[in-house]
Design the sequence.
DNA sequence: CGAGGCATTGATCTATCTCAATTCTAGTGG
DNA sequence: CCACTAGAATTGAGATAGATCAATGCCTCG
């Protein structure tokens, strides 16, 4: 039997809702204010939480924020109850990691379907991603307790699905934490004053997104967008910092990731400063060809994107690729690229 | 009583010199060749080393180079003994980090005054830097035990002095740890195949050098060179990692430093990709003007260096600076730069 | 005070961007 | 399943910012 916790200051609504749920076979816990709600959640670890936004003393936001900080409760599906209107509030709630919201007054069917839907989704996601997570754990094995907890945090947290071209966050947004890419790929980009874009990074499965914004108390300096349909998992700032405090290994992993990043960027700066378009494009193709060391020799990417990564004009990219093709270095058909002569690309003179 | 090691293949000179020194109250160690000299130095850690340049099998340069690599011996004052002439050799020796040289034949007074002067200098430097270190400790206070230990580590380590244009480490060297800059400034640079240099970073007092090489088990990917006479302190890899394991705060500091670095690099990439030389040079001037937030409006730098940071030709830098001057944005006299109109530089259109 | 290294300035050259006109591709709806 | 269309890619022609080569002038440091 599933336990559901209702946090709601109005006795009427609370009892009424509880009744509906109990008739449907759920076991219900009730809390009349935020503080009580948090305590109950931590003690009982319910399977789902319903929480009013507007409450005296402690708002629903504070409750969600507090629960998110505790890894034990961070992953419990969380549904906001809210008076109609207040769209801004809803946005804010969802951004903070709430899973859904119900507009009061709601009827039995709305309530039950929202809850069921959420419980099902959580369940199926858990199964779906447990495979990915096993890989992750294997990957981060031997790192001791720290990573087990990190993995728990990941497994526990809700997954956010974003579709191709959708924005995960904008330059200027306040970072909420870091994202682990579970599936698909994303890119981060900066925009110059004249509107030209520069892609600064491409993230694939198992990459972390936003580490460099985690500890600097500033807004994002780049925009993150899905290159293809993707699933990411938000690890809230406070939880990650908490882990960082407890497990130095995790900090060391982050340092490694960032160090690699710095190195890559410096390499790119050197290329951009002194290498010809041919050379830069050649090395970019190599870089894209082996996203994670597995050389696959073929991938898909638009000219505009190639241009935005390498900082050249799309027409120039197009021309140069045509040259490469006639020279037998690559094969291209529309946006599909196939590397033919890896070595000659690596050793491109100029 | 101070120990002095003499490395010299000619027995006559060696014994003679030893006698002079012993009469003056020093305890003398002797070595007849480079290999023996290095071993003795490592075993006995003398207070000062005298070393002939021209020796069979292993030259004085090799001895100095070997001792410099070992942190235990790197900070021992090192004086070359050399036959007259050979000015080039002397230059080379000083560039490698020797502290002084004596031209053979030398008399008692020359020898003793050189030694005394050097020992005194080392002593006073130790005191001088202990003050800097105290500042550092104050600076990193409030970070708990971790930083106290870090500060201890720093205080314990010997200081390495490097002169202008001298190399701290080369691309391809194995990192021994990270360096804390105590005084002066250094730059790290990468070299393109055609010999052009790109300066990737400039480090000032209290900056850490080499964090990005610390945890990646690979060689340095850039060369570090002193821009002006500088003093650095080597924090050995193992000690730092040990601290990292014990004090998450330190890891977090490193993450912040690296995060900032990544951000800066991305910003530079954007500029290099899409901004005009005018704009890039303007923002570089701004960046150089305030090394650590203290706007001083005037600094010294060569055209070649400006070119190597911004990835343009030195002539272009020169031309653009002249333009800036006629526009009343800056004032320049040889390599001295003075910012006149900070705002207009920041808002440079194109 | 002299020399060698910096800095400046001029003249030329070219890699790459920009604008513009076609052609191709892939995704949509009938 | 096919035709249609909007977006993507290609190709051409022309413009230009900045690199390069070269000559001269100016510090600065011994």
Sequence:
């Amino acid at each position: 039997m599933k336990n559901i916790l209702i946090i709601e200051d109005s006795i009427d609504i609370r009892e009424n809702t509880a009744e509906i749920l109990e008739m449907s076979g759920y076991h219900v816990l009730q809390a009349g204010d935020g503080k009580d709600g948090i305590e109950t959640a931590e003690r009982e670890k319910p399977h789902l939480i319903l929480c009013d936004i507007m409450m005296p003393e402690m708002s629903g936001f504070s409750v969600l924020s507090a629960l998110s900080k505790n890894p034990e409760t961070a992953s419990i599906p969380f549904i906001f109850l809210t008076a109609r209107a207040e769209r801004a509030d809803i946005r804010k709630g969802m951004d903070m990691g709430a899973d859904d919201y119900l507009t009061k007054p709601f009827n039995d069917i709305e309530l039950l379907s929202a809850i069921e839907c959420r419980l099902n989704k959580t369940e199926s996601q858990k199964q779906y991603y447990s495979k990915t997570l096993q890989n992750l754990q294997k990957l981060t094995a031997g790192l001791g307790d720290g990573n087990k907890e990190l993995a728990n945090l990941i497994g526990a947290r809700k997954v956010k699905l974003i579709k191709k071209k959708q924005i995960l966050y904008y330059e200027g947004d306040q970072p909420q934490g870091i994202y682990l890419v579970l599936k698909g790929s994303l890119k981060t980009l900066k925009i110059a004053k004249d509107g030209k874009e520069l892609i600064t990074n491409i993230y694939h499965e198992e990459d972390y997104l936003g580490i460099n914004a985690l500890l600097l108390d500033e807004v994002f300096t780049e925009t993150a967008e899905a290159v293809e349909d993707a699933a990411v998992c938000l690890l809230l700032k406070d939880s990650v910092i908490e882990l960082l405090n407890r497990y130095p290994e995790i900090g060391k992993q982050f340092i490694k990731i960032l160090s690699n990043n710095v190195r890559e960027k410096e390499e790119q700066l050197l290329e951009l400063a002194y290498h010809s378009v041919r050379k830069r494009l050649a090395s970019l193709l190599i870089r894209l060809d082996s996203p994670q060391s597995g050389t696959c020799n073929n991938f898909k990417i638009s000219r505009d994107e190639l241009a935005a990564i390498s900082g050249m004009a799309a027409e120039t990219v197009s021309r140069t690729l045509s040259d490469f093709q006639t020279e037998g270095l690559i094969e291209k058909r529309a946006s599909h690229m196939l590397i033919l002569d890896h070595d000659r690309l690596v050793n491109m003179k100029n």
Observations:
- Chain A touches chain B at residues 190, 192, 194, 196, 198, 200, 211-216, 221-222, 241, 244-248, 251-252, 254-256, 258-263, 265-270, 272-275, 311 (CB under 8 Å).
- Residues 302-304, 314-315, 318-319, 321-322, 334-335 of chain A lie near DNA strand D (CB under 10 Å from a C1').
